[in-house]
């Protein structure tokens, strides 16, 4: 189990520099998986200005975005507002991303059910810098001058081709569009554990993705039993402890497969929990 206090971390460089946005885009790297693994994942906090632009595109992997502040544009006239959560399924198109409000977002990216994983941020940056010697990244597109004129390709697809020697393949999307969820519209359900309430927000079977909000009353406890899934918790209100580790506003916890933990609330504690099963489990 690992704990990090995201609210107290300094902002780092943009992890999506291939999409543009300049220094106004910044990230905090919270938890990461293993490069070249189909189960690779990356949990970050992102800061984006309303001037950020990304063209219509899709991913060969899955993504979840939890808007903490502001508003995220994901298509013309479609936004993920503060408090809302969006699931971006593998291969589903979205965008352009343009406008909205300045925002702070918790973002989870993880390998899709197709088993391709994704290119981690360090290798992504290395490839981008190599490619900048032969072309340029503009507005989310990689542009390269060739004998017959100019050749353009989506920035991420171009990096994938550079790193892997082929373009990504896209499985038939199980959902045609991203899915935007509004937790505030859902009722709190009383758990069997005293003082524990929960909101079942979304369940998506392809990677066993389960999105749930929890609320724990002051002095209450909540047990996380051993599970074969990875669980990522992001705390949005209150204070408490997980085992002997302090929890506070914008703390994050990672409970790995095979681990258990118990949470205790000093005052009312709220968090969002993301559960993801290993790819091999889904294919068994």
Summarize the structure.
The protein is mostly beta strands and 284 residues long.
Question: What features would you describe in this structure?
Answer:
This protein has a domain at 183-283: Jelly Rolls (Sandwich). By secondary structure, it is mostly beta strands. A seven-stranded antiparallel β-sheet has the order 1-21-18-23-16-15-14, with no helix packed on it. Strand 14 (189-190) and strand 15 (196-204) form a beta hairpin. It is globular and about 70 Å long. The chain has helices at 121-131, 155-164, 279-283; strands spanning 2-5, 26-32, 41-48, 53-54, 61-75, 78-81, 85-88, 97-98, 101-111, 136-138, 141-146, 149-154, 179-181, 189-190, 196-204, 209-216, 221-224, 230-237, 240-242, 245-247, 251-255, 261-265, 269-276.
What keyword list fits this structure?
Jelly Rolls, 284 residues, single chain, globular, mainly beta
Rough outline: globular
Overall structural class, as computed from helix and strand content, comes to: mainly beta
Q: How would you spell out the order of helices and strands? A: EEEEEEEEEHEEEHEEEEEEEEEEEH
CATH topology of the domain at 183-283: Jelly Rolls
Proper CATH architecture of the domain at 183-283:
Sandwich
Query: CATH superfamily of the domain at 183-283, called what?
Result: Jelly Rolls
Biggest sheet features: 7 strands, antiparallel
Radius of gyration: 19 Å
Strand order of the largest sheet: 1-21-18-23-16-15-14
Helix content: under 10%
Number of DSSP helical runs: 3
Whole-number mean pLDDT: 94
